[in-house]
Design goal:
This protein is of the alpha/beta class. 34% of the residues lie in helices and 15% in strands. An eight-stranded parallel β-sheet has the order 11-10-9-8-7-6-13-12. α2 packs across α3, α3 packs parallel to α4 and α4 runs parallel beside α5. The longest helix has 18 residues. 48% of the residues are buried.
């Protein structure tokens, strides 16, 4: 396997003249970390990286679902399930979900899911999942909520119904490995997608996950799946990638991925991080209840932004928006309009 080059991201206002911008965003780099199986990581000047790889690391990411990536974006989580790990039942009646969505005005996109993918969760029938999500999508539009909507599903039938009802993006936690009909459907509908890495399915994924090298293993999977989606007719400019924090990963795996998140810019697509209220945040932050993990979730989101991550998927939208506004202002030395 050839080396993968990770831009070593910085956000300091004292930027060298020869620094390069990570994905035309807010982080910059002058050096990279070369990661290769069987070898110790090596730090190299960016000038030693092949030109085509530098172009992938630095080029602008086209708009997706109406979102440009010139600033950090927030995906608000709206679980329409009775058994989600963090907010099970809170948004289960459609009226409650619509009320919650109204508190997420600061979100750039709303992610609606009707099947819990918490550790140990079992697969539910596609009709049940559709029956949970469709009234909410219709209700959001009828209530005048205009943000783009992402349907969080592994199933083509659910995605088809959601897209028909006004959803804008398909977010598949299985990385398009669960339902072979999902990628062709998204290609036919010209729907943007988010491809996530997961090891195993929710029912078994936390029963001792193993990796040879978690960073490179996840990178390789996402690279293969992006190529698969492209071959299925979904162009790269309509693809987002997510390393899948907490999906078939131990705490050490999660932290290894978070420490080197910028490696995934080598995929050439926008990056999404969904770590909000995850178990490792509770353990490290000593917050046993998921609802008490907002401060830790924000800390992880801000750390991800330093890596140039374009989208953070969160439960606590207003608080995260405030934190991002202050993070951007203190990094730049001035407030943004």
């Amino acid at each position: 396997m050839a080396a993968v080059f990770r831009p070593i991201p910085q956000t300091d206002p004292a930027r060298p003249a020869d620094a390069l911008t990570v994905a035309a965003g807010w982080s910059w780099f002058t050096h990279v970390e070369a990661l290769e199986r069987g070898r110790q990581p090596e730090i190299l000047p960016a000038t030693e990286v092949p030109a085509d790889i530098l172009e992938t690391l630095t080029r602008d990411r086209p708009d997706i679902a109406g979102m440009s990536f010139d600033r950090p974006r927030i995906m608000g989580i709206l679980n329409i399930t009775p058994d989600s790990f963090s907010d099970g039942g809170q948004n289960f009646p459609p009226e409650a979900a619509i009320h919650t969505a109204q508190t997420m005005a600061a979100a750039d996109i709303l992610d609606i899911g009707g099947e819990s993918t918490r550790p140990g969760a079992v697969t539910i029938p596609e009709q049940e999942e559709t029956d949970r999500t469709l009234p909410v999508i219709h209700g959001l539009r009828e209530a005048g909520i205009s943000q783009p909507i992402s349907i969080d599903t592994r199933k083509a039938a659910v995605a088809a119904a959601a897209l028909g009802a006004g959803a804008d993006l398909v977010n598949d936690v299985s990385g398009f490995t669960f339902d072979r009909a999902l990628a062709p459907l998204c290609a036919e509908r010209e729907a943007p997608v988010c491809v996530m890495h997961a090891q195993g399915d929710p029912a078994t994924m936390q029963q001792s996950p193993q990796y040879e090298d978690v960073v490179l293993d996840v990178f390789d999977f996402l690279q293969r799946q992006i190529a698969h989606l492209s071959a299925a007719g979904i162009p790269r400019h309509r693809i987002i990638a997510d390393p899948g924090i907490g999906f078939g990963k131990s705490e050490d795996h999660n932290l290894a991925l978070l420490a080197r998140l910028s490696v995934f810019h080598g995929l050439g697509v926008p990056l999404l991080l969904g770590a909000s209220r995850k178990r490792f945040i509770g353990r490290i932050g000593q917050a046993s209840e998921p609802s008490d993990r907002m401060p830790g979730s924000i800390a992880v989101a801000l750390a991800a932004l330093k890596h140039g991550t374009q989208i953070v998927r969160v439960h606590d939208v207003p608080q995260t928006a405030q934190a991002i506004a202050l993070w951007r202002a203190t990094v730049a030395g001035h407030a943004h309009g």
